[in-house]
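User: Is it possible to get a 3D structure for a protein together with its bound compound? The compound here is NAP. I've pasted both below.
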Amino acid sequence: MEKRALGTSGLQVSPITLGAWAIGGWMWGGSDRKDSIKAIQACPDNGITSIDTAPVYGFGLSEEVVGEAIKGKRDRYEILTKSGLTWEGTKGEFHFSTIDEQGVPCNIYKYSGYDSIIAECEESLRRLGTDYIDLYQIHWPDHTTPIEEPMEAFSKLMEQGKIRAAGVSNYSVEQMEQASKVVELSSNQVPYSMVRREIEQDVVPWCIKNRCGILAYSPLQRGLLTGKITPDYPFAPGDSRPETPHFRINNLIRTNEFLESIRPLAEEKGASLSQLVIAWTLLQPGITVALVGARTQEQVRQNAGAIEVQLSRDEVDMINSKLDELNLDLE
Ligand SMILES: NC(=O)c1ccc[n+]([C@@H]2O[C@H](COP(=O)([O-])OP(=O)(O)OC[C@H]3O[C@@H](n4cnc5c(N)ncnc54)[C@H](OP(=O)(O)O)[C@@H]3O)[C@@H](O)[C@H]2O)c1
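Assistant: Yes, that's possible. Here is the predicted structure of the complex:
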């Protein structure tokens, strides 16, 4: 899989990158450590060299598992992680309440204070068992802290060689404008899938104009666009997907009807629906990376295979016209 440059930082990442949120278990009904390690270790042989994680994914667990999986093989991977979401303390902007790994209620805050970002980086390096992070991203903007502050922390961390490139996540155009005055922004990690396309309005044009990479997160809409989610799908307790708007029964049925309508194209290509969806994602303007989650080596292998799926302009147009007819109720 040919790597792609992320912005102008010099960092090269695999266009299909493994997302390790589900590997942390939290909000996904748990995870299996052995399967997770096998999935991460299967990545490079399938062309996926970049792994995206975050401290909050399993409250440290995802980073720890990534660290265990890459031990002794650090140079085969680009490691992308984040800071700016905390679950201890009350500084910053309240994000939401949740249940931690021990089943204890806790509150997540968006907090990007300078000292906190510097301290978080040390924690991530320790959990990941590495002395540098390839791409360090602010997970969510914190409206109680000036945007310049975390970016100044990123500048310091770059100067120290602890991080190689600076990115953000879930930032608006205005926030990217502000951040890029302090540090060269490599990327913005944002939600993007066939059924979630808001960024096309403003984030995508800004990123193209400013040569900033885009990591499209949840391109399978948390598994929905694989076509496997039936109305009676057996979600594990603690899996938050059934509570999200895209998984509401009406939206689920309509999305599955849409997927059935493009299945013949997938079959013609010898591809799975997931592969077709990932291939479509990578063809959209401005998208540098399809950041796809996987829990097993089989999912990794299948998702990596999307890179081989070729789609013509007419085929993309055909998919888009069907998407235009898809009327989801996401209020
Ligand atoms: N920055 C942010 O705020 C933010 C937010 C969300 C996500 N992200 C990042 O984006 C990554 C990807 O997003 P995501 O994990 O939400 O969703 P996704 O990539 O849309 O879906 C991933 C899930 O779909 C299922 N799946 C994946 N490949 C499959 C296959 N080939 N066949 C069948 N099922 C398959 C797996 O779950 P099951 O097997 O359980 O169905 C997997 O965990 C995350 O891991 C994270 O790194 C970032």
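The radius of gyration is 19 Å. The mean pLDDT is 97.
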